[in-house]
Amino acid sequence: MRARPFRPTGVQGAEPPGGAERAEPLEDGTGRGGGGEQTKDQRIAAVRRTAAAARRRRALHLTGCAALLAIAFTAGSIAIDAVHDNTATGIAPASAAVAPGLLATGDLDTGISSLQAHLRDQPRDFSGWSTLGLAYVEQARTKGDPSRYPQAEQAFKRSLALKSDNDQALAGRAALAAARHDFEDALKYADQALKVNPYSERALCSRVDALVELGRYTDASKAADTADDRRPGIPVFTRYAYVHELRGDVRTARRVLDQALSSAVTPGDIAYVATQLGQLAWNQGDYDKALTHYARALAADENYVPALEGRARAQAASGDRTGALKGLQDVVSRYPLPGPLVELGELYEAAGDQVRADDQYALVDAWTALARANGVNADLDTALAAADHGDKASALRAARAEWNRRQTVHTADALAWALHVNGKDEEALPYARKATATGYRSAAFLFHRGVIERATGHAEDAREHLRAALKLNPGFSPLGAREARTALKDLEAGK
């Protein structure tokens, strides 16, 4: 069963929310997208139609890729000569458009529209281009739309062409590389930005993210300390907390997040930090506390998707299957991303509804095709999903590729599990041990290790780690927790 850890922070986590549903692309900085914008509902409907049709033909990966490439190229097409055709109305003053702080206000729609209008009048404004690139990265992240990444890349390139030592654009390229899971480049650009401006908050945060995702945890801890010294604030605090959580220091992580929440003022910051606290509590099996934190997050922003997803997971773990299904259906209807899709699929599968479960797993493949078409390395997502709900051989190929790129606790766990489902348990065991070596408290990792130890004849170790998984977070996965209980019962009976 896919027992995917729910990452609380880092590049795959969430930042304070923005909102941009009808922003116009200015991919290369000279005009609007020639193909026109597809609405959120149209994109999701297209993905769903593609996945369903492909599943029926047992060729999801081929047809899904073709259709999603078409969607991506339509949404992200570059029309260099279209600038004079822009007739957008309701443009904010240029002075507001070029302020990077606008990205944190939640009014990302207005910010992007204003930036586009301003840059048509002032195309040599390097700061405006970098801010537009950051807005596209934020839009891709909050809306689950990777077709924004090529647009962000074009904006950053334009900014750096105008001013090569532009720390804002360099930090933006670091954030973009991290979003695409190219962590070597993320580290490179973050270091370049920090040479220009050692106090760049975005570069400091991206540097921590990159080191964490490259498995350089000691360096990441030092980078978090440096960031805290130079630019203490909510983005840095959450990274600092996650670095400590990865080392098993949950108490410090919780203390830092509590302090961050006490200093949060804007609805976006409150929702963001409260959600991190909710995820931390969920990871430790404290579902009541998790639900309390998610309630606070949603009181600040009722549409904050990470909080909606987290609440549904906590409801599922608490036994509220109806609430969990409703919540996850709402999330994936708007943002069909791999994590909630698999969680929803497993809830259906646990209830015996395999048809609906397969629909969700098919959509994961569709999302992966879209992500890859827009430069995102999706091997970790592929390995985690396919190991339990797809092509096991492709899961192993993806997991090996990701381990070769970066050696983290998450990639070690993914490779261990992919090896296990392919019957290579002896090879899997060292990786399962690596996944738990830092002290990171993950029930999913303990479950995987226990299952692999059982398969390799280490019965006592298997009992120890399966018990630990269920004690830490007894509802860590709709299917995985059930399998863990069954395996432990069999081990106890065989004593």
UniProtKB/TrEMBL annotation:
Q: Signal peptide position in this chain?
A: none
Segments traversing the membrane: 59-80
- The ranges of the TPR repeats are 167-200, 271-304, 443-476
Q: Which UniProt keywords apply?
A: Membrane, Repeat, TPR repeat, Transmembrane, Transmembrane helix
InterPro entries, alphabetically? TPR-like_helical_dom_sf (IPR011990), TPR_rpt (IPR019734), Ycf3 (IPR050498)
Which Gene3D superfamilies does the protein's record reference?
Tetratricopeptide repeat domain
The record's annotation in Pfam families points to: TPR_16, TPR_19
Report residue spans for region: Disordered. Answer: 1-43
Name of the protein in question? Tetratricopeptide repeat protein
The species this protein belongs to is: Streptomyces shaanxiensis
Source organism phylogeny:
Bacteria, Bacillati, Actinomycetota, Actinomycetes, Kitasatosporales
